[in-house]
Design brief:
The chain has one domain (22-78). Helix content is 29%, strand content 37%. It is built from 2 helices and 5 strands; from the N terminus they run E-E-E-E-E-H-H. It has helices spanning 52-59, 64-78; strands at 5-9, 16-20, 23-28, 31-36, 41-47. The strands form 2 sheets. It has a 3-stranded antiparallel sheet with strand order 3-4-5. Strands 1-2 form a two-stranded antiparallel sheet. Strand 4 and strand 5 (41-47) form a beta hairpin.
């Protein structure tokens, strides 16, 4: 299974298919960057640690306040 795909199951019919995640973390020298599959470009900053909770929010509810808080947290970790 590709790293940017997730398995989605339909509980009613029992069918399952692969759904591509829009945002994925890619390893780059010195850390990680977030790749936007839809726009086909890098999104955000360079991160030393993999931003799993930020990716989950971007691919999930995408609450702007929560995304802003997570971005501030990751920026403070770099300093």
């Amino acid at each position: 299974m590709p790293s940017d795909a997730i398995l989605v199951a339909d509980g009613d019919t029992g069918e399952s298919w692969l759904a591509k995640r829009r945002y994925v973390a890619r390893g780059v020298p010195g850390g990680y960057r977030i790749w936007d599959n839809k726009a086909r470009r890098w999104w955000g900053d360079h991160y030393e640690l993999c931003p799993d909770d930020l990716l989950a929010e971007l691919n999930g509810a995408a609450d702007p306040a929560r995304i802003t808080a997570l971005l501030k947290r990751y920026r403070s970790l770099r300093r």
